[in-house]
Design goal:
elongated, mainly alpha, Helical scaffold and wing domains of SecA, single chain
Length: 500
């Protein structure tokens, strides 16, 4: 039963990882992560208690008190300020009595009392400047009243006005705007957010985030190219404009000359190239739409498992399709290979060809980034699950079934792992300018390089059989008998490794 939990988790992680290795469009996976993040965070910000929970946490940390969020519902700031300080004052009385009982126990000798710890507790908790010798002069019987009075003065002197923003009516939507700007880099005006239902707000943020992702797709190849053509010499760097222009001209299929970059600063050069990149991506979108229409027309009335051989209906139609794929996408496919494609495989291979032609750098970056983050998170999760399994037996002392608790806590940790993956991936994707320069450089693609498809499993098998046949072709070759030439160890003799 313990292994059942891990088996389910392994299937999900390895299945996700295999999809990446099989060539799925990683943008789709990252967009899913964006949607998950929007759903998770906006549910938090738009919750009715979001403001009072934030105020209770913040004020509680300032007042060294544990405040209950629901107590502040419907209060304005003046009411909340007064109530929070009254609660903190009441809690201070309890905290003082407990500290005295702990550090000045009545059943112990006075020589064992820890006046220093008592003074330190009060100083740390309420920001006082008490000395242990002064408290000792007051004596145990009177020190409680003295500490409570000092704590009360300190509590009422604390300014909570900065927390007023948490209790404002539009705190939730302000939080949405601030989070979206911090997370994705785009600004949302309050007027855009006010008056919208939660579902509408989520849709708006998702759309703006995807639009920002489109901007990143245009910017990333330019960033990779400028890293590639930046040269260091004598402690300074300069841009190889000739090389950059030659690359950009072929990469973005545009007319560009060194004169276009003349007298331009680095940022101006970047903006010019990004504009060419955007226009090139417009062509990519047109080609993607063409591919989608082609696939839809082929599989319009087909069942999910039908292949291209079945939907085309004849060898001539299939051959015509293979020629169209080559002419349109520059993708080399044999008729035999294409015949086996079902709809899912066809979509993956053809859209992948479009991506490799128009967005090679960012697709490579996404793939590397996802694999690295998933692998790291999975290793950390396995370690956490090992710790959980070694300690779950203690649940029996609390009258709980260890197996049930292991399953519940294990799945909680697993979902937490996926949340952390989505958080990390989106953080890096929308701040790609902070990525390591060497990492970005590793995703740079030569414009003259040609995308080669990995050989199919059947092709590999044929190559292996050919190699075997070739190795067996020379029948006259004498194969030397394999002999053991080292020193032999007797059956009952000690092992030479020293183990006995």
């Amino acid at each position: 039963e313990y292994d059942e939990v891990m088996d389910e988790q392994r299937k999900r992680v390895y299945g996700y990882r295999q999809r990446i290795l099989d060539g799925v469009n990683c943008r789709l996976l990252i967009v899913d992560s964006v949607h998950d993040q929007v759903e998770h965070h906006l549910n938090t910000f738009l919750d009715r208690d979001s403001g009072v929970e934030s105020f209770a946490r913040w004020a509680g940390s300032k007042l060294s008190a544990q405040l209950t969020p629901k107590d502040f519902r419907g209060m304005d700031f003046e009411q909340a300020d007064r109530y929070a300080k009254d609660e903190a004052e009441r809690m201070a009385e309890t905290q003082v009595i407990e500290a005295i009982d702990e550090n000045l126990p009545g059943e112990e000798e006075e020589s064992e009392w820890n006046w220093e710890a008592l003074a330190k507790m009060a100083n740390v908790r309420w920001g006082l400047s008490l000395r242990d010798r002064d408290l000792k002069k007051i004596g145990r019987d009177e020190v409680a009243e003295h500490l409570i009075a000092e704590a009360s003065k300190a509590i009422h002197a604390i300014d909570l006005s900065e927390g007023a923003v948490f209790l404002e009516e539009d705190f939730g939507i302000r939080s949405v705007g601030a989070w979206a700007h911090s997370k994705f880099g785009f600004a949302l005006e309050l007027d855009e957010l006010r008056g919208r239902e939660a579902g509408e707000l989520k849709k708006l943020v998702r759309q703006r985030a995807e639009a920002e992702y489109d901007n990143k797709e245009a910017e990333y190849p330019v960033m990779a190219g400028m890293y590639r053509y930046t040269q260091a010499s004598q402690g300074s760097t300069h841009l190889d404009r000739d090389g950059l222009v030659a690359w950009a001209r072929e990469r973005f299929e545009t007319e560009l000359s060194v004169e276009d970059l003349k007298h331009k600063q680095r940022e101006e050069v970047r903006e010019l190239l990004v504009e060419h990149s955007r226009k090139h991506l417009d062509k990519a979108n047109e080609k993607s739409a063409t591919v989608k229409r082609k696939i839809d027309s082929l599989f319009r009335s087909a069942a999910g498992d039908e292949t291209l051989a079945e939907v085309t209906g004849s060898d001539s139609e299939l051959e015509s399709l293979v020629d169209w794929i080559h002419d349109t996408l520059k993708l080399e496919l044999s008729k035999r290979e294409a015949a086996r494609f079902d709809r899912e495989t066809c979509e993956r291979r053809l859209t992948g060809a479009v991506e490799d032609q128009f967005r090679p750098e960012i697709r490579r970056m996404e793939r590397m980034l996802l694999l690295q983050i998933v692998d790291t998170a999975w290793k950390d999760h396995l370690l956490a699950m090992d710790h959980l399994r070694s300690s779950i037996g203690l649940a029996g002392y609390a009258q709980m079934d260890p197996k049930v608790e292991y399953k519940r806590e294990g799945m909680r940790l697993f979902e937490q792992m996926w949340t952390s993956i989505a958080e990390r991936v989106t953080d890096l994707i929308f701040r790609m300018e902070s990525l390591n320069e060497d990492f970005v450089g590793s995703t740079w693609v030569e414009t003259s390089a040609r995308h080669e498809q990995a050989p199919a499993a059947s092709d590999i098998a044929q190559q292996q059989r050919a190699a075997i046949d070739a190795s067996q072709g020379n029948a006259d070759a004498v194969i030397e008998t394999i002999r053991h030439r080292g020193e032999r160890v007797g059956r009952n003799e000690p092992c030479p490794c020293g183990s006995g």
